[in-house]
Amino acid sequence: MDINNHIIENISNPNELERMFRKEPEAFKKSFSYAWEQNPDSQVLAVWYERLLFKETANTEKAFWLQKAFLFMGILAILAGISTRVIFHFVEQQAIAPINLVFGILPFIAAYFVYNNPPKKNVLYTLASLFLISGFYLNILPLELKDTIILAYIHLPIFLWVLLGLAFAGNEYRIGSKRLAYLKFNGEFGILYASMAISGMLLTALTMQLFRMVGMDISEFYFKNVVLFGAVALSIVAAYLVSSNLKHSKNIAPYIAKIFSPLVLATMLVYLITVIWVGKNPFLDRNFLLSFNGILLCVLAVTIFSITESGTNEKKNISDYINFALIVLVLIIDCVALSAIVFRVSSYGITPNRLAVLGVNILILANLIWIMLSYIRFLQNKSGPSAIQDAVTKYLPIYGLWAAFVAFTFPLIF
């Protein structure tokens, strides 16, 4: 039977129309026009008409706006690459600190966020002034590798990362779901950037080999100009793709979180047992304490990534119990690290490094307790997953404030 007549015959059978559409969507769309012309008063076909027509109109408008965003992204990527190359030249001359390279990337990503989600003037002025103040402050610090200067170099990018979150959220910076979206953006950005970077590394290796075959070594020129420019420009491209709701990155991120969470949990349990077995002591071994804190931050990052990618499903699953076990494990690691740093402060006195590590451990401890209590309530059906995500997102500004405090005041105080 002709599909045109089949559509007309099933006007009063919505289930059959839906079945026909799902079975052969293209044929249904082509035949629908005839059925609509023959029955212009049908309410059922009017709904189908709007459904099919709206989808085509929406896609056309989206493509137009994406084209503008794409051009703006391209301009930003080129400017970021050029700026970073100029900054790198002064770093080579030892005129400025290497940490200045972040200003060749983060302000341009922030500019794209502002373009994509225009904020009010007060938010825009805050962003611009804080980026300028940070850049000015960084370059009036003496080029000396003292403890306080190194702490400023480490903490300033953290503060700028939180500032980038303000650019991402725009006028909705107080809303928890927007902060959660920023954390998800970071995870998806990392996955996408790493995927594209691997392709770039393969291209670089191929290029080096091709020029070696003709007796030319272009490695120094290529890395200083092409690789550096490409790596920076790629960050702007990745930000654009993730912000444009790239389906691939958004589909793969939750699966990576589900795969890595149990692996990290098992690895850390084996590692802690091994540490106890071989008798490593973070209370007396300074280098091991620093490594222990590094492990703490890595596991905390994986845990937060897993929580942000877990979604808002009220139904509990195995991933929730794994996340809770990770939180408890990180809490144990933090308690050991905090005890060790308190011991070293009480035994050997206060130094900038010890005070900075002590402060961040206390902040992490408070955040972990909040997350753990929220998880307990969730697992006991006393609250939803949003309470756990709030425990993560509402604490972000505190980390930013602490990073700013260390970066801007430690070189003055000490």
TrEMBL record:
Domain of life (superkingdom)? Bacteria
Where do the TM regions start and end?
69-90, 96-115, 122-143, 149-169, 190-210, 222-243, 255-278, 290-309, 321-343, 355-376, 396-413
Keyword presence, Membrane? yes
Keywords annotated in UniProt: Membrane, Transmembrane, Transmembrane helix
Coiled coil among the record's keywords?
Answer: no
Tell me what this protein is called: DUF4153 domain-containing protein
